[in-house]
TrEMBL record:
InterPro entries: DUF1540. Residues 12-51 form the DUF1540 domain. This is DUF1540 domain-containing protein.
Amino acid sequence: MRVEKSDAITRVKCVVNTCEYYQSGDHCTASKIEIQPQNASDTQDTDCATFVTRR
């Protein structure tokens, strides 16, 4: 895993239920999140670099 798990980040909505950090209710349990790339110009250009496939 890239980051540790923590309590759900309730202000962050995540619907990717195949992610290791996904928690029911559409919450993220990563201790931090990283969204890339730096120079994105719209939503289609962004990527959650914290994503790890659920085992």
